[in-house]
Design goal:
The protein is an alpha/beta fold. It contains seven helices and ten strands. Strands 1-2-3-4 form a four-stranded parallel beta sheet, sandwiched between helices. Strands 5-7-9-10 form a four-stranded parallel beta sheet, with helices on one face.
Amino acid sequence: MNTAHIVSLCGRLDVHRLDEVRALGRHPVIDASGIEFLDAHALALLDELGAIIAAPSDVVRITLELTGSTLSCFPTVEAALGMQAETVPDSNVLRPGSRLDLETADQFRRDADRFLASPATHAIVDLGTTTEMDVAGLAALAFFLIRCRAQNRSVAIAGPISPPVGRLIDYSGFDLLFEAA
């Protein structure tokens, strides 16, 4: 893990601090507990850099939820640091898109096969942009989990998860099978 990419940002994170954010490089871990304001320009740049947000302040958490951001977000710096080594490069982050259903489950399985062919030991299924899921999508997630566990790999679900997808995961009991990222 590269500790040069761990940084604590405080105060306003807006258009006036874009150069400071850009200088962080790719995939920085950002302690966001002290951020009091986050504008769309800074958020877009963090997304472009593939930033990993740790310990988000209420302002950051609400901004991420309202904008539907796909940034990886962890409750503590320690959790983010533990994940950084395994989530970078992005080849082991699976992003199903807006739908994970009968029509898109095969593509998800192909993406999962690419992950399983990689040396990564941890997968994150980022459901941050997934707003629709049906039983076929749930089955694709289950199949991926079974295959990962058979190879001693771990799988976590990341969000923010939309209410319909969250209900399906909760009602099916899948929330008990996956780690939360």
